[in-house]
Amino acid sequence: MPxxxxxxxxxxxxxxxxRAIFTLMLIAFIDLMGFGIVIPLxxxxxxxxxATDLTVTxxxxxxxxxQFISSPILGVWSDRIGRKPVLIFSQWGSAIGYIVLALATExxxxxxxxxxSVIFLSRIIDGLxxxxxxxxxxxxxxRVAPQNRAKVVxxxxxxxxxxFAVGPLIGGxxxxxxxxxxxxxxxxxxxxxxxxxxxxxxxxKTDGARSSASGFVLAPSRLAALKHQPMVVWLTATxxxxxxxxxxxxxxxxxxxxxxxxxxxREAGYFYFFVGATICVIQGTLIGPLTKRFGEWxxxxxxxxxATLGMFGYAYVAYVPPEPSPGRIIFTSLLxxxxxxxxxxxxxxxxxxxxxxxxxxxxxxxxxQGAAFxxxxxxxxxxxxxxxxLAGLLLQWFTRDWWVMFIVAAGWLGAAxxxxxxxxxxxxxxxxxxxxxxxxxxxxxxx
Length: 447
What we know:
Structural class: mainly alpha
Largest sheet: none
Radius of gyration: 21 Å
Strand content: under 5%
Helix content: over 70%
Order of helices and strands: HHHHHHHHHHHHHHHHH
CATH architecture of the largest domain: Up-down Bundle
CATH class of the largest domain: Mainly Alpha
Number of strands: 0
């Protein structure tokens, strides 16, 4: 397969938009830092009330389901009344959700079932108002010229990634002292972000303007435009397999840390920070030079292969029977294997998303790329709903052999490797950069 040509530099961004772009980047950083503060701690919140493994994973599924339903609605709403009101509404919705989450751990509830219901309520509220990313995309479409959008989306995606890497570290340390502190801090950050939008972000919506980011991404009218583009379907299926595996891992890592190492919130925060920082470094500094050197398909396949190997490493750590007082050598060895597995898996994930997006861009009809990326993102969102559900069911079915869950996740990634091998002879070489979409970058920041 021929290597892609060198990327042509994009024109400079209009200075009059610099302040708005900087404000968006700061808002993205604050939003995702608040989101990242509580995400690694959610399993610990649920475990305080004797939640089952399935209940823990359902917390991830219910949020993703609510977000999948609400994001296109909030996108259309922002077309009608403006971007600023919807951004502020979304941030206040997140703040309320975080406050409800904090109260779930602060109040002495009559039963554990009620406490768990309050935690689920907090995730439902946050998911139904989680329209920030959709509206940010629309704002960029409103205010930035097409030739500069890739650069701006990349900058905002970087802010998302850094915020998501820093958040778990802060949340883990605070949660070690009081489980409610991280949720209260996230609520404060969301309120602060809403004030920044109100004071410093100019409205971008003009009468008659409409963003392609709005609307249900899997609507039949959109998908009909892709019926004669089999490569789009197969690339989307490949990414669905990858995302399915990744989100099976996300809510189960704290369970692995607790069972095998007796680690709590603080150590989980360290772990998520390590993974998030790895993803930020690779996607922020290495992905461009590596793509120029090796090409998109090679990196996508290598990424899937590395992620698969990392998943087998997780499975091995889960396979070793936990001991009440493990020997120092055994404990240290397992911890090293866990760290290496996390590094390999995160590296694989980092290589995949930008290269998969680039291949999709090159292998879809330019007239229907909005529909192509809509399906690509839409099925990834479905994976984020279904993946944690399957993980929870496997943990419930294989109570004593719960390492099986990681093997199944590795199987999904293995299927992606096979699909990429089958697709290689039919793919066109890529000649333009496509940065990671902020919506997926946010999901990618999770371990």
